[in-house]
Design a protein that fits this description.
The protein is of the alpha/beta class and about 250 residues long. The protein has 11 helices and 8 strands. Helices cover about 40% and strands about 15% of the residues. Bound molecules: 1,3-dihydroxyacetonephosphate (13P).
Length: about 250
């Protein structure tokens, strides 16, 4: 019922030449008719050229961040309309690096999600607990807070995807076990049911992120409430990214 999505967050990686090589490698191995959404989120300077590279393919384009205002004196920032111009259909909001390295607050993220949705794009809202939270038994408390401070019924669920990325699993090589991830995904879905309603929550896609690799993708992606992956490191290598796409298809 929920179409899976494999999204690649390139973070601050790839020059233009490197990016073209990567995308050519992915396109070479991609089954265009496969029942999976594929998204790449390159750094902002690559959005226009990558839109060209993926034209006429099933790959969609996303941005890693956005400013909440439509325009103004915000040096170094870009707006939803500007990203839309490049061909973006999706924007990541609240990635843990934005929260923890750049100090973005729930208030700010609530504005960003609304700016994205009102601009007609899809917000991929990222949530997840730190190791300290998990060890203190606060995982679901943190997740609930991250959901409640940003999402409400005025945020169209049709323009929303959730990404659960436990901070302790990002870039560390430590993945949540399939059971750990499934438990949190199920909890997130229940919580979304109270923000929206049960039927809407059943339709919302919840991606897992945090050291997803070709070797662990299948066991994560077969979990009932895991609807795809937000991939960091492994999306920078064409063979690894396409192997993860194949894993989600095998799991379907
Ligand atoms: P890694 O796959 O490198 O752990 O990164 C996950 C991530 O942060 C994707 O947004």
């Amino acid at each position: 019922m929920r179409k899976p999505m494999i999204a690649g967050n390139w973070k601050m990686h790839k020059t233009l030449t490197e990016a073209r090589t990567l995308v050519a490698g992915v396109l070479d191995k991609l089954d265009e008719s496969a029942e999976v959404d594929v998204l790449i989120c390159p750094p902002v300077q690559l959005l226009f050229p990558m839109a060209k590279s993926i034209a006429n393919s099933k790959i969609m384009l996303g941005a890693q961040n956005v400013h909440e205002e439509a325009s103004g004196a915000y040096t170094g920032e870009v707006s939803v309309a500007m990203l839309k111009d490049t061909g973006c259909s999706h924007i990541l909001v609240g990635h843990s690096e934005r929260r923890h390295v750049f100090g973005e607050s729930g208030d700010r993220l609530a504005k960003k999600v609304r700016a994205v949705v009102q601009g007609g794009l899809i917000a991929i809202y990222c949530i997840g607990e730190t190791l300290e939270d998990r060890e203190a038994g606060r995982t679901t408390v943190v997740i609930d807070q991250q959901i409640d401070e940003v999402l409400a019924s005025d945020v169209s669920a049709e323009h929303l995807i959730i990404a659960y990325e436990p901070v302790w699993a990002i870039g560390t090589g430590k993945t949540a076990s399939p059971e750990q991830a499934q438990d949190v995904h199920a909890h997130i879905r229940t919580r979304l049911g109270s923000v929206y309603d049960e039927a809407t929550a059943q339709k919302l896609r919840i991606l897992y992120g945090g050291s997803v690799k070709p070797g662990n993708a299948a066991s994560l992606l077969t979990q009932v409430d895991i609807d795809g992956a937000l991939v960091g490191g492994a999306c920078l290598v064409a063979e690894d990214f396409t192997a993860i796409i194949s894993a989600v298809l095998a799991a379907a």
